[in-house]
Each structure stands twice: as C-alpha cells, then as structure tokens.
Amino acid sequence: MAAAKTITVEQTGSPMRRPKDQRATLIGLGLNKIRRRRTLPDTPAVRGMIAKVSHLVRVVDES
After folding, report:
1. Banded pLDDT at 20 (limits 50, 70, 90)
2. 23 three-class SS
C-alpha cells in the first residue's frame, strides 16, 4: 500500500495587518509564526488553503 502524499509548508510572512480569514487559514494550517513548518496531507482542501495564503507561505517539499 502506497504511503499518503504529504506536503510541507513554511510560513514566510507575518499575519499582522492581514484580513481575519487569512489569519484563520494560517491557524488552520497549523502555522502562526514565521519560519514554522508543518507537514500536511496533500488534499484539495489543503491545496486551497495554501493558495489562499500563498503570499505568506511557501511549499518546501512535496512527497
């Protein structure tokens, strides 16, 4: 059985002075401080959240 695909994201920008929905999206991704990383399942929902805050995060690794 193949392992589930994952994606690692790193926060690169500050949520200060951003709309509340963008701050909430970062929290939903498990990010709240710059340079913090999270490995998440590669699902359409997670991809959509990353797209919403793409100016505040970067994709480090896709496996």
Report:
1. very high
2. helix
- Domains of the chain in start order, with CATH, are 6-62 (3.30.1390.20)
Question: Distance between CA 56 and CA 63 in Å, rounded?
Answer: 21
Element (H, E) at 45: helix 44-52
Is the Cα torsion angle 53, 57, 58, 59 positive or negative in sign? negative
Rounded to whole angstroms, how far apart are CA atoms 11 and 3?
Answer: 25
Tens of pLDDT, residues 45-61: 999 999 999 999 999 98
Report pTM. Answer: 0.89
For residue 49, the SS3 value is helix
